Amino acid sequence: MKQHSCKQLLSLAFIAFLAVTLHQSFAATDVPPTAAAPQTTALPPAPPARPERGNYTVTNGNGTVCLMARMGLQLNIRFSSASLNNTVQDVVNLQPNVTKSSGSCDSDSATLMLMADEEKTNLTFLFSLNATSSKYHLSGVILSAVWLDMSEPFSASNSSLDYLRGTLGHSYVCHEEQTLAVAVNFSLNTFQLQVQPFGLTRDQFGAAEECQLDEDDMLIPIIVGAALASLVLIVLVAYLIGRKRSHAGYQTI
């Protein structure tokens, strides 16, 4: 009897030992592996806010204003960075409060020069007038800049452009943002632009000629409104036809 009890105790001890061993084994396998440290990547710099709109004028020899421009300007430049030893893309707003305007006006050409002393940035607009058609356009843009991180002075120009087309005596207006591609490494973004390089009267803008972007922006609400009006008309006609048929079904025989 004692021998039988001893065997039972040994069996129970073995079972308990086996249970503890299995529990520790399963617990070890359930431990999740150590999570790898997340890798962080530097986010690209956020683009600058919408540029402030500046007022720029050019006067001729007798002090009369011969060119007027109101616009926000944004320079999109690709240049060689001295600190990074690589080519970088940068977008910079032209600040009107530190920008001076000058230029010249002739019978068929006009020049607007903007100089930002703080950043040593010089931006020049060249306008041309076709006397036969009485049409003008932006024919050239020149930019030179010396910024702190530039490994060498930056320059870009193009004298074969055809932007901002207007009629003599009228101003060219484009409230929407538009991008003027100048060179491979330089483009110009304009905001709320109104410019008139020829035919100013009493230092005032002539009648505005809207750009295509503004016309398209105005056309969308008109199309949507016309579509909604057509839908309402269709529903109304269908309702009247259905009502007429229902009354016809109750006529006295």
From TrEMBL:
Signal sequence interval, chain numbering: 1-27
Localization in the cell: Cell membrane; Endosome membrane; Lysosome membrane
Membrane topology: Single-pass type I membrane protein
Lysosome-associated membrane glycoprotein 2-like transmembrane domain: residues covered: 220-251
BP GO terms, sorted: establishment of protein localization to organelle
Domain Lysosome-associated membrane glycoprotein 2-like luminal stretches: 51-200
Keywords: Cell membrane, Disulfide bond, Endosome, Glycoprotein, Lysosome, Membrane, Signal, Transmembrane, Transmembrane helix
Disulfide cysteine pairs (residue numbers): 174-211
GO (cellular component) term, any one: plasma membrane
Residue spans crossing the bilayer: 218-241
Family according to the record: Belongs to the LAMP family.
Name used for this protein in its record: Lysosomal-associated membrane protein 1
